[in-house]
Design brief:
5-stranded antiparallel β-sheet; NADH Oxidase; binds flavin mononucleotide; globular
Length: 208
C-alpha cells in the first residue's frame, strides 16, 4: 500500500473475526515498530505476543466483561463527554473492551523501560521514554493496516498493569502502555465516524 493510503486506511476496529495471524506477519509488524524514533537511542522496547486464548482470558480477567446501559451513561456523564460524535465512539468502545481482546487473533503487549517514576515527572523530558513507545506503537498501527489487518488498543486502568505483569512476568522496570488487539475485522465491524475538522483551520502561519 502507498504511504498516504495506509495513513487514510488506519482506523480503530473493535469487532474481530475468528481468525489466526501468522508469526511472520506479527514479526514484520513489530520490526516496523522498532524503526520508530526513540529518545535515548536505545529502543529499549520488548513485545509479548499472546496467541494462546487461555492466556488472553487470564490476562484480561480484570476488564469488565459487560457494561450496563446505566453504567455507560454514568461514565459518559462523569467523564464530561459532551460531543455527540465522541459519545457515539465511547458508547461503541466501552462495552467492547473485554470482547475485542478475547476475539482478536493475537494480543500484543508492547513494553518500554522506564527509569524514573512515570507518574511523577519533574519535567516533560522525564516522559520521553513514554513518548517514544507511542511513536513505536503508531508505526505498529500503520504496519498492521498495511498488512490488511485491523487493531484496537486499550490503556490499562487501575491495577491492570500490575496484574498483567504478574501473569506475563515482565521485569519490574518495564511498563506496558497498552494492550493491542490484532485481527481481521468482521464484515459488519463498526468504524466509528471520526470527528470532522478543517485542516486549514488548525494551521497557523508564523503566529496563532
Ligand atoms: C492514547 C490513546 C488511548 C486510547 N485508549 C483506548 C482505550 O483504552 N480503549 C479503546 O477502545 N480505544 C482507545 N483508544 C482508541 C481511540 O478511541 C481511537 O483512536 C479514536 O476514537 C479515534 O478513532 P480512529 O483510531 O478510528 O481514528 C485510544 C487511543 C489513543 C491514541
Amino acid at each position: 500500500m502507498e504511504f498516504y493510503d495506509v495513513i487514510n486506511a488506519r482506523r480503530t476496529v473493535r469487532d474481530f473475526q475468528d481468525d489466526t495471524i501468522d508469526m511472520e506477519v506479527i514479526n514484520r509488524i513489530i520490526e516496523s515498530g522498532m524503526k520508530a524514533p526513540t529518545n535515548d537511542h536505545m529502543r529499549d522496547w520488548h513485545f509479548i505476543v499472546v496467541k494462546d486464548k487461555d492466556v488472553v482470558e487470564k490476562l484480561i480477567k480484570k476488564i469488565p466483561k459487560k457494561v450496563s446501559e446505566k453504567r455507560l451513561d454514568f461514565i459518559i456523564k462523569s467523564w464530561n463527554l459532551n460531543d455527540e460524535c465522541q459519545q457515539r465512539m465511547y458508547s461503541d468502545a466501552i462495552p467492547k473492551q473485554y470482547q475485542m481482546l478475547v476475539d482478536a487473533s493475537c494480543v500484543l503487549i508492547p513494553l518500554f523501560k522506564q527509569k524514573r517514576d512515570l507518574l511523577k515527572p519533574k519535567d516533560l523530558a522525564a516522559l520521553n521514554a513514554f513518548a517514544s513507545i507511542w511513536c513505536c506503537i503508531e508505526n505498529i498501527f500503520l504496519a498492521i493496516t498495511a498488512e490488511k489487518y485491523a487493531y484496537a488498543l486499550r490503556v490499562p486502568l487501575g491495577g491492570e498493569q500490575e496484574y498483567v505483569k504478574s501473569i506475563l512476568k515482565f521485569p519490574e522496570e518495564y511498563v506496558m502502555p497498552c494492550y493491542i488487539a490484532i485481527g481481521k475485522p468482521k464484515d459488519d465491524a463498526v468504524y466509528n465516524e471520526q470527528k470532522k475538522y478543517v485542516v486549514l483551520n488548525r494551521i497557523h502561519l508564523n503566529e496563532w
